[in-house]
Amino acid sequence: TRVRAILEAPDETIVGSEVVVKGWVRTKRGQKTFTFLEVNDGSSLKGLQVVAGAELPSYGEVDRVSTGASVAVRGVIQESPGQGQRFELKASEISVLGECPGDYPLQKKRHSLEFLRGMAHLRPRTNTIGAVARVRSALAFATHQFFQGEGFQYLQTPLITASDCEGAGEMFRVTTLPPASPPTDDAGAVDFAKDFFGRPAYLTVSGQLSAETHACALGDVYTFGPTFRAENSQTTRHLAEFNMIEPEMAFADLIDDMDNAEAFVKHVVSHVLQNCRSDLDFFAGFYDKGLFDKLQRLVDQPFARIEYTAAVKLLQEEIAMDPSQWQFPDVSFGTDLQTEHERWLAEKKFNTATFVYNYPRTIKAFYMRDNEDGATVAAMDLLVPGVGELIGGSQREERLGVLEAKLREFGLDPKDYWWYLDLRKYGSVPHAGYGLGFERLVCYVTGIDNIREAIAFPRYPGSAEF
Ligand code: 4AD
Ligand code: MG
After folding, report:
1. What is its EC number (predicted)?
2. 92 & 136 share domain
3. CA-CA distance, 174 to 178, in Å (whole number)?
4. Ligand 1, atom 24: nearest CA belongs to which residue?
5. Cα 419–Cα 421–Cα 425 angle in degrees, nearest 5
6. Which of 49, 158, 230, 261 could serve as 88's disulfide partner, Cβ 3.0–4.6 Å?
């Protein structure tokens, strides 16, 4: 039986049932005639209180128990006379599965998150990282639930690719170990560019271009998988390997795109509010006092929507009042908004999730649809308090001639995009999509500050152990 099922039992009828609980001991408190163990099995933040009486035939096992040991306990559930829990387990049999020596790094005290990063193999046993993992799993479930419920098809796009979707040059090159007999070019020189795939190949930065092929065949699709960026940024919001959810919708424009993103984010947040209550209580207590307010407001209120040009005007007015408060005070049309700008909009100005849309075409990717004004594209970013950019998306350029010209303008060779252009040549349709950074969503929902705690095994410059 899982501990969560006992702790969250709907009523008292569970009292008297015999169960076996298996987990890891968090604390042990000995009295003369009995011992209390807190057994945590990872199903919930709190462990189950186990009472082992000295009369037990297997009471000798208790001597082998210390913090971190794994145990199996058979017993009967009873109402707990003590504070802090409704039910406890009166043990009838206890066995130690794995002892835990005294040098166990996770002794009963608060460890810094930096320290725990160096213990990525053990940190899921801590309150914070365990709670993150449970919330993360619930968010993943709710993601599939939302899109499947809306009739989207789930699609896996390749991790190894030849194209740089975002055109930012932040790709990891994929090669084999040096071959025994390296390929050579016509002159006999070693040619490492012509290795396994016969062309340079990279880890994908986004599944979007592949997803478009299926949106233009199946209708609405979504991806949910790893993406990679070789950004040399030691920030609290960037990972070299992160997970992205990328819906792509046929017969959709930028408004449909924002509407879908808003409904999606609201769905996953309300799912977590309903299903991860005790974990969220923990995060509200230790990481973000205003967490419930923030999440409830997100679910209840419409998101703010503002055009980039108007957002720039608001920022200029605000900055003019005290430029010294800003790290990047120069903002004008064409400025790529910095995190401090994004967070001011979402936190100070609108105090809720905020779409900024219709960005200057020069600062956005080649595939975004040109607006009639000739200066902007049908792009949108969703900014949320505490995190900044959570989503980036756009309506895609579906006009063959316009897209070809734009590729050239951006210094890209239309020949490399022949299959992408074919989607515009053969039965082109207006379509739109977006990418949501899953780990940033985890940060937002839990209130933890650093994205390195939002993923089990964070990858960032200088870190690929575990
Ligand atoms: O804004 P981005 O670069 O958009 C795209 O990749 C589009 N192709 C998506 C699409 O339209 N299908 O990235 C999307 C989101 C960002 O808003 C951010 O949340 C997250 O991905 N993201 C990162 N998360 C963690 N670490 C990084 N290095 C990230 N880079 C982007
Ligand atoms: Mg972006």
Report:
1. 6.1.1.22
2. no
3. 12
4. 437
5. 110
6. 49
Position 23 scores a pLDDT of 98
Ligand showing the shortest atom-to-Cα distance for residue 163: 1
- Which residue type sits at 86? R
pLDDT band at residue 1 using 50, 70 and 90 as cut-offs: very high
Cα 378 to ligand 2 centre (Å): 13
**CATH number of the domain residue 321 falls in:** 3.30.930.10
pTM for the complete prediction? 0.95
Domain shared by 23 and 148, yes or no? no
Domain assignment present for residue 175? The answer is no
Instruction: At 192, list the tokens.
Output: 């490492």
pLDDT class of 237 with cuts at 50, 70, 90: very high
Q: What is the CATH number of the domain that holds 85?
A: 2.40.50.140
Residue 403 CA to ligand 1 centre (angstroms)? 22
Same domain, 350 and 214: yes
Same domain as 94, residue 129: no
Residue 462 lies in a domain: no
Pair (149, 7) in one structural domain: no
Amino acid at 93: E
For residue 242, the enclosing domain spans: 125-170+205-453
Q: Pocket residues for ligand 1 (CB within 6 Å)?
A: 165-166, 206, 208, 229, 231, 238-239, 242, 244, 246, 389-394, 433-435, 437, 439-440
Judge whether 11 lies within some domain. yes
- Report the pLDDT averaged over residues 342-359: 96
Virtual CA dihedral for 335, 378, 381, 303, nearest 10 degrees? Answer: 120
- The DSSP result for 188-233, as a single string, is S-B-GGGSTTSS-EEE-S-SHHHHHHHHHHHSSEEEEEEEE-----
The set of residues, in sequence order, having a beta carbon less than 8 Å from that of 150 and lying 6+ positions away, is 220, 260
Q: Are residues 232 and 291 in the same domain?
A: yes
**In this predicted model, what pLDDT tens digit does every residue of 364-379 receive, in sequence order?**
999 999 999 999 999 9
Between CA 228 and CA 365 the distance in angstroms is 17
Rounded to the nearest 5 percent, the helix, strand and coil shares of the chain are 35, 25, 40
Per the structure, the count of domains in the chain is 2
pLDDT tens per residue, range 270-300: 999 999 999 999 999 999 999 999 999 999 9
Answer yes or no: is 112 within a domain: no
- Rg of the chain over Cα atoms, rounded to whole angstroms, equals 27
Q: How far apart are CA 394 and CA 253, in angstroms?
A: 8
Do 160 and 14 share a structural domain? no
